[in-house]
Amino acid sequence: MYVGVSQRLCQIQRQLQLHTMLSHEGPSETLKRKIAELQKMRKSKKNLKIKKDQFIVEVPKSKSYLDTASLPRILTVVGVGHFTKLLMMHDDSRSQELIERKIKNAPAGQGTVRMLSHEEWEEIREVRPRTPFESKLARPNARIRTGEQLRK
Question: Where is the stretch described as Disordered (predicted)?
């Protein structure tokens, strides 16, 4: 945009020179006004460019007010603490109720622990493995699902 104004100013100055060469009189008033307007525009655009190059640095506000504990802040912290404590207490009581309800509604014999006899343990070890690569140490007679024996 600045180039366009400069080019236009140069054209008018050339016209002015041609005009003064052809007629030995001075330039016309309209031509002088046009030149004056273009020069004003040129100067104002230069001033705008200078203003654009300058920048303003915002200085951050002091945060010293955060160091001071005020009553609303203290009350907020205490309120949030009490609210979380109430939520935790409610959750604990609810989880205990759920566990008791599950135990109450469970079928008979479920959840009881007892020792296996030696025969029961051997019986479990004889069962074919559920996965083809189960450890032979856990079940010595383990076979791959295809029926072939594991390598010895």
Answer: 130-152
Q: Say how far residue 117 (Cα) sits from the centre of its chain.
A: 59
Q: Report angle CA 38, 44, 47 to the nearest 5 degrees.
A: 145
Which candidate, 136, 135, 46, 133, places its Cα nearest to that of 145?
A: 133
Q: Return the closest-CA partner of residue 33 out of 21, 25, 41.
A: 41
- Locate the domains of the chain by residue range: 2-53, 120-152
Q: Distance between CA 109 and CA 95 in Å, rounded?
A: 23
Mean pLDDT by 10 residues, the chain (152 residues): 68 71 67 85 70 70 81 94 94 87 82 84 76 58 57 59
Query: What six digits make up the tokens of 46?
Result: 């230069």
Two tokens at 89? 């207490």
Rounded Cα gap, residues 35 and 28, in angstroms: 11
pTM check: above 0.70: no
